[in-house]
Amino acid sequence: MSDQSKPFLYVVVCAAGVADGVGELITAAQEQGWDVGVIATPQGLGFIDTRAVQKRTGRPVRSAWRSPGDPRPFPPADAIAVAPATFNTINKWAAGIADTLAVATLCEAYGSGVRTVVLPCVNPALAAHPAYRQSIERLRGMGVLVGGGAGPFRWEEALELLAARGPGSLTAAQPVAAEGE
Ligand SMILES: Cc1cc2nc3c(=O)[nH]c(=O)nc-3n(C[C@H](O)[C@H](O)[C@H](O)COP(=O)(O)O)c2cc1C
């Protein structure tokens, strides 16, 4: 059972090669007092050990919308870390193309004022695409904290960025629900 007194962190996982290390972020977040739920993109599901993640978080890994009438699997998010974030998901998020639960959750987070950080994992050739540069610029303009850059992928950077942001929300609106409710 989760401890609802703890802040709740959604970790959104995309289909990048480093995704199988997401346990590192989950453990570090839990050690800092977060309760964690993982939302993977449909492609991202194939990149993680879902059983291990479920065991670690004590919750199912979400990837699809729930059926109408089913209870909400996760509490509302206090913060969201998108790690790793792919070229595809970053561009869809910035464009508002909410065709997966993961991207829909991110699109809602802006209007709901939920603190959101993103760790892109995008190779230099893809990152040079003008659409990607514009997407990152748009996300920054939405208040999203963007990590990554040169060097190896650092999971802990997500928590460092969240701590730097502090407990306040982006727009002081309601916390996000994962289903668009
Ligand atoms: C082994 C493998 C590793 C990949 N790594 C990356 C990556 O690091 N970054 C990225 O943007 N796409 C990567 N891709 C491509 C994405 O998986 C692909 O664009 C996918 O459609 C992204 O889906 P998502 O954004 O919904 O998770 C990789 C694909 C494979 C097969």
From TrEMBL:
Residues 11-139 form the Flavoprotein domain. Signal peptide: none annotated. InterPro entries: Flavin_trans-like, Flavoprotein. Pfam families: Flavoprotein. PANTHER family: HOMO-OLIGOMERIC FLAVIN CONTAINING CYS DECARBOXYLASE FAMILY, PHOSPHOPANTOTHENOYLCYSTEINE DECARBOXYLASE. This is Flavoprotein. It comes from Streptomyces flavidovirens. The lineage of its organism: Bacteria, Bacillati, Actinomycetota, Actinomycetes, Kitasatosporales.
